[in-house]
Amino acid sequence: MSEKTSQPRAGAAPASFSGPCNGAESLVATLVASGVDVCFANPGTSEMHFVSALDRIPGMRPVLCLFEGVVTGAADGYARMAGKPACTLLHLGPGFANSMANLHNARRAQSPVVNIVGDHATSHERYDAPLNANVTGFAEAISHWVCRSRSPRTVAADAARAVQAARQAPGRVATLILPADTAWLPAERPAPRLEVCPASKVSEGAVDAAAEALRSGRKTAILMRGAVLHGDGLRTAGRIAAKTGATLFCDTFTPRLRGGAGSPVVERLAYRGKDILRRLDDFGQLLLVGAAPPVSFFAYPGQESWLTPPHCEILTLSHPHEDGNEALAALAEAVGAPATGAVAPFEPPVLPPPGPLTAESVMRTVAALLPENAIVTDEGITSTLPYTALLATAAPHDYLPLTGGSIGGILPLSTGAALAAPDRKVVCLEGDGSAMYTLQALWTQARERLDVVTVIYANRSYAVLNQELRLVQAASGGERARSLLDLHNPSLDWTRLAEGMGVPAVRAETTQAFAQAFAAALGQSGPRLIEAVV
């Protein structure tokens, strides 16, 4: 499945079923008619009518996840690869609250997501039962669009509007709150799919200004984000760079990047603010395509938060809600770009020499052995960020990193990506500390037989926090401070954790052992895990 997956036409008839329908049945049928055919779920009592409707309404694939953060992280990964929303099924306020960290990542990734949140029946609210909570308030904190159905007669229409809202450019989080009685009471009928406004056109003035800037002779950085990084826009950007000498960049945590052999080389901005400032100091102008000017991930004493040097002029070709692909095509024509641009050759790195395993040797091995058209998901942070350039000349692939900075997103995201693209191998690069947030995703991978190879960087530490402690100029080195950043005593045993979830696993402590384990995992289907002790 890819973003070219066919979508039902607007007004298409909803999925049919015999007999009268209740609100839940009208909801499921409307979702299917609107092109939503996967539901990542962690249901509870209030959602049982939705669960029951799945047996009577054809077309929806339910996927059980054992924690709500896995539910929303999987929906994020699915959307990034499928180019359309899945729905989530969540239970009341506490269930939604458990999901919010990875909804934050999905929102930052501009992923379309439709949340269905069951709530108490309207007649039950006044009793303030133990699970009663302000679901609407929770939802409004993280969603672009929120609706609480008031009647079973409106549930279907509300669902159609939720999908429409989620699919609005560049991708949004929509949350539909479903009181239990609106699910079980009789409803009229499902609703047809609603039309979605296309991405806005970029003004001719923006194209003209960008073309004039590129013709000025000033050294130019083009910073891109969104769909332009994995489709026609990327090739067009390569043509523009070939004509003008501009350097192509993406932000540090871009949602999806097409990379490897055959793609234009796009430099990923560094993580540390001072490194970004140093790199952009070489440029006289920064052209934004669906991106925002870079800022520091955190504030640090005595360091800049705004990362565009004063002498570097900022211009905007397209905003996130605008059609960046079309804008780049118009810009290429305006500057007289050639028919093709330079692309990365297929020159994967050689395997590392024998010896103890390091973070660099893990990435070198991954890049050397990566199969064609793989999906690489990455939350290794300190273990991966310094070495991702090794992927530039590896086999063609899609690269999906963490976006919003809320750790624990990549195991679920890999799960959703694998379900959206079942014919592609997913290679998940994950730190041991981050993985503990959502290790339940491994169980879903085993149950669904998803083709994911997970590499756990076992450094037995929140390594990035050791760096942060030094950067904020806090006192470091004390026993109590170190205890909050250390994952020894006891050490995590990822082979046993994975096998307990149904995923075969091995441990590697040398470069030879890791290369053998990684090659073996690539040669098999279904989930595998390698604990890389670095």
Automatic annotation (TrEMBL):
Residues annotated as domain Thiamine pyrophosphate enzyme N-terminal TPP-binding: 22-126
Molecular function as annotated in GO: acetolactate synthase activity; benzoylformate decarboxylase activity; flavin adenine dinucleotide binding; thiamine pyrophosphate binding
InterPro entries: THDP-binding, Thiamin_PyroP_enz_TPP-bd_dom, TPP_enz, TPP_enzyme_TPP-bd
Keywords: Lyase, Thiamine pyrophosphate
All residue ranges annotated as the Thiamine pyrophosphate enzyme TPP-binding domain in the record: 396-531
Secretion signal, residue range per the UniProt entry: none
Pfam family for this entry, one: TPP_enzyme_C
EC nos: 4.1.1.7
GO terms, biological process: small molecule metabolic process
Enzymatic class: lyase
Alphabetical list of CDD domains matching this protein: TPP_BFDC, TPP_PYR_POX_like
UniProt xrefs under Gene3D superfamilies: 3.40.50.970
PANTHER family on file: ACETOLACTATE SYNTHASE LARGE SUBUNIT ILVX-RELATED, THIAMINE PYROPHOSPHATE ENZYMES
NCBIfam families noted in UniProt: PRK07586.1
Family statement drawn from the similarity comment of this UniProt entry: Belongs to the TPP enzyme family.
Name by which UniProt lists this protein: Benzoylformate decarboxylase
Species in which this protein is naturally found: Solidesulfovibrio carbinoliphilus subsp. oakridgensis
